[in-house]
Amino acid sequence: MHYEGDIIRPPSEANSILLQVTLGCSHNKCTFCGTFMNKRFNIKKDEVIFEDIEFARTYCKNQNRLFICDGDALIIPQKRLVSILERIRDRLPWIERVGLYANTKSIRLKSDQELEELHELGVKIAYMGLESGDDQILKTIRKGADSARMIEQGKRIRAAGIRLSITVLLGLGGSDHSKSHALETGRVLSAIDPEYVGALSLMLIPGTPLHDDYTAGRFELIGANEMLEELGLMISATHLSGGLFHANHASNYLPIRAKLPQDKESTLARIAAALEGKIELKPEFLRAL
To answer: Could you write out the DSSP letters of every residue in 179-247?
Structure first.
């Protein structure tokens, strides 16, 4: 495989074939993110992509899922993306699910019919970073979209039959906006009603604008208990029709896996018990991105 730089994929794609089609992220402006700081966004040449598909045809026959990397493969023009997906379907017929990252810009660039076409060609899941439902926080972190656009585009991709996994980031509002961050994020998640929600806990990365704000005293990072309180408030405000709410990423202090709405009360009770010291939290040295 022709991999360039670090390869980032969602935890649920750990056993998938990783096909790097783009380099970096088409947005790459979020103040908290250092993932693609050293990568200039680019779409790889078809001959390189197709050669990697041939490699997978020979060596990856035991993997039935494929994830298209890097940060925002959905931004690829429809004709090229269709060509790649057709090649995957033709050369890797055992693949049952193709996944990719998406953002509101890339979703907006696709018509409803184009999104449906991608679903028919095997794209079964998309991962979208909401981060927060609070419009002021979204503006501050330079996310490039407000909550209304997040809701609109999240609903569109779900309407095309593509499952949606949304990432939110605990602690992103700092101490001053923790409550509004939790409540507004719950509001947006409820409006989109995704199949999956993944909550990560903020870890500051040196070299990012948000880390600079922290060192300069302009941003106050909340602690473990405050993160848990925020998580509890967010889950209380989130009303899903049957989605999974995960907070079991390596960055989290307390592993959570809840089917909403049925597991909401037991999950909130677990968080309350942790806040009372009845459940041990993950120590700082074991947390990771």
So the answer is: HHHHHHHHHHHHHH--SEEEEEE----TTSHHHHHHHTTS-----HHHHHHHHHHHHHH---SS-EEE-
* pLDDT tens, residue by residue, 116-125: 999 999 999 9
Judged by DSSP in three states, 100 sits in strand
Burial of 58 (C-beta count, 10 Å sphere; 0-12/13-18/19+): exposed
pTM, two decimal places: 0.95
Tens of pLDDT, residues 153-167: 999 999 999 999 999
Q: 22-36, 148-162, 184-198, 260-274: lowest mean pLDDT where?
A: 22-36
- Residue linked to tokens 């009845």: 278
Domains of the chain as residue ranges with CATH: 11-286 (3.20.20.70)
Identify the three-state secondary structure at position 71: coil
The answer to whether the CB of 41 falls within 8 A of the CB of 22 is yes
| Nearest Cα to Cα of residue 235 among 266, 204, 207, 212 | 266
For 247-289, the DSSP string reads --STT-SS--EEETTTTHHHHHHHHHHHHTTSSPPPPGGG---
Smallest Cα–Cα separation from 31: which of 179, 198, 202, 230? 202
